[in-house]
Amino acid sequence: MMPGVCIGSSLAASANGGSCGAVTIVNSDVRLLCKIPMNSVIIGPSLRRQELLRLHPTSSSRTRRMSSRVRATWPFRSNGKEMDVNIERSEAANEDILIFFFQLDLETQIQYALNMEQYEAAQQLRNKLDEVEAEIIKQREAKRGSRKSEAQDKAINLLRLRADMQKAIEDENYAVAAELRDEISKLEAEILAASAKALAYENIQYAFRLGQRVRHKKFGYRAVICGMDPVCCESSSWMQIAHVDKLLQGRNQPFYQVLVDVRADPNLLVAYVAEENLLANEQPDMDRFDHPYASFLFYGMDTAGDFIPIKQLREKYNKPRHEVPVDTSDGDAGGNL
Q1: Who's near 326: CB < 8 A, 6+ residues apart?
Q2: Distances (CA, A) of 294 to 165, 200, 225
């Protein structure tokens, strides 16, 4: 069996707790991948496969971990009420990262097949990777909501309602025409709101960047940015548990996937945090940061203590590489870079 298949199978088997559309991608696409008959194709070792199996254990051990989280909470008192740090723990964000690992592993398997001159296997893997990437883009758009499509659909519906109202007037059916007029007024307001959201979605400005070290404003833990969305893309049930609508800026603000230092909380792992709940470090943070995903997502640290995202991660979010500013006031700064 191919190493890439093993990774996908392990992801699919352990993805039964997530809430985002990406889980469906793994479950369906990996089953298709497993149908490819390649028992004797790629026999080379896969470091990423072994590491992923270690990082994402089976569903039974995952259930035990989740039950332990219920008992070991991290309370935070706000306005006389205790808050639990785990309310921002996101299975969907974790699944998104693991799917990203799955893509990286497929790319590794393709290159290995080419190196071994197994061109037919490489082409099959390439086709599979294309399918997975296309479905991920499709699901991501559905999860975030295509604001442009929403506005366009409402505009088409508006034209239909106006035609129906005109016909009702011509038939002297004024009661129906009045009802249609009210529907048109309501739809026009919705179109205006959808258009405004689409504009904001496209022109969003993020306060934080990939690889940046941050601190949670309420819970105080140290974290590293590894993903971002222009608005909250979690399920309605997650947003309710996380009290998203009680935030000052609500759900219509950037949300970040963050890796939480395992020394602060070994169970939280990946959190999904609103921009208003994150703080940038005023001084470079060069202290040790431990997380099992860090070596997959980042090359290492820069001179300011932030992490350098790998090329594939920057491409995923269409972000340029961040260059650390040179301190010209220090004569030795150039030699330290």
Answers
A1: 333, 334, 337
A2: 59, 31, 11
- pLDDT confidence tier of residue 146, bands split at 50, 70 and 90: low
Return the SS3 of 180.
helix
Instruction: Report how far Cα 336 is from the mean position of its chain's Cα atoms.
Output: 35
The answer to whether the CB of 292 falls within 8 A of the CB of 262 is yes
Q: Residue 247 in 3-state DSSP?
A: coil
CB atoms within 10 A of CB 263: 13
Which among 96, 110, 1 is positioned nearest to 56, based on CA atoms? 96
Instruction: Report whether 95 contacts 23 (CB < 8 A).
Output: yes
> Tokens in use for 167?
């016909």
d(CA 268, CA 189): 41
For residues 245 and 269, is the Cβ–Cβ distance under 8 A? no
Instruction: Express each pLDDT in 179-198 by its tens digit.
Output: 999 999 998 888 887 777 66
In three-state secondary structure terms, 301 is strand
Average pLDDT over residues 74-95: 70
